[in-house]
Amino acid sequence: MKSNKAFTLIEVMVVIAVLTVLTVSIVPSFSGYLKNQNVKQAQETLKSDLRSVQNKALTGVLSDTGAYFWGILLAADSNGGPSKYIMYPVAEDSSAPGMPESTACSIGYSTPGGAEKYTVTLETGITIDETSLEGNDGAYTVGCIFFDRAKGDALFWELTVDAGTALATIKLDKDGALSQNIYINSSGLIY
């Protein structure tokens, strides 16, 4: 008698059904994992850029052009477009020593000596939460952080600062569902 060592159609269908159920249950959780990682990556990139700007202030990069501060302008598009942030040197206000120029928290700010601005646009779906930003610049809600050259201390302009902790919070959102926070205190500590 001949032995048949093949799978029956029913056995193949059961295996396919089990694999389908497993795939359907894994894909949504993996998708959520990817979204969460995208927000975390944006958070780490912004924290790194904040530290880089602070380091430029402390080392006096472009101080020969009149830059006393280095700043980062956070801009959330009020019309739903992509959020961005701009890093740039800032001159000291001649009428208020120890303070950035009064026009410095503006997308159109002219940097000392015409120095280059560095703009980073966040990936689609990741936004800077407008609730922590208080300024208005055309279609954007803005807020600024300036680091001084002397100690790297942070000055907050047009940002919501918690009165009890003196912390400014930058909140990044992904499609309104996931979020990550960055905290900065007036001494320049970023976490």
From TrEMBL:
The keyword Membrane applies. Gene3D superfamilies: Glycoprotein, Type 4 Pilin. The chain crosses the membrane at residues 12-34. Keywords: Membrane, Transmembrane, Transmembrane helix. NCBIfam families: IV_pilin_GFxxxE. This is General secretion pathway GspH domain-containing protein.
